[in-house]
Amino acid sequence: MANFIATKSAESSYIQRLDVVSNKDQSKTASVVNGAVRLMYYESILQDTIKATYTFADTGNSVDDKTVVDGLPIVGQEKVYLKFTDNNEVTLDLVLYVNKVSPISEDTTKSMIQLELVSKEFIMNEKIRLNERFDGKISEHIKQILTDQKYLSTGKKVDIEDTSNNYNFIGNNRKPYYALNWLSKKAVPNFSEATGNTAGYFFFETTDGFKFKSIDSLLSQEKKKSIIFNQTPDSRGDNVPSGYDVKALDYYKDNRVDVQEKLKMGAFSTRTVLFDPFSCYYEVITPNAKEKEKSLKLGGKELPTLNPEFNRLGSNKEFSRTTYYLLDKGTLPSGNTQQQLSKSKEENFEYKNILNQSIMRYNQLFSLKSTITIPGDFSLHAGDVVFVDAKELSINDEEVNKEYGGLYIIADLCHYISPKETYTKLNLVRDSFGRVGNHTSGKVPL
Question: Looking at 364, 384, 402, which one is the last position of a domain?
Answer without folding.
Answer: 364
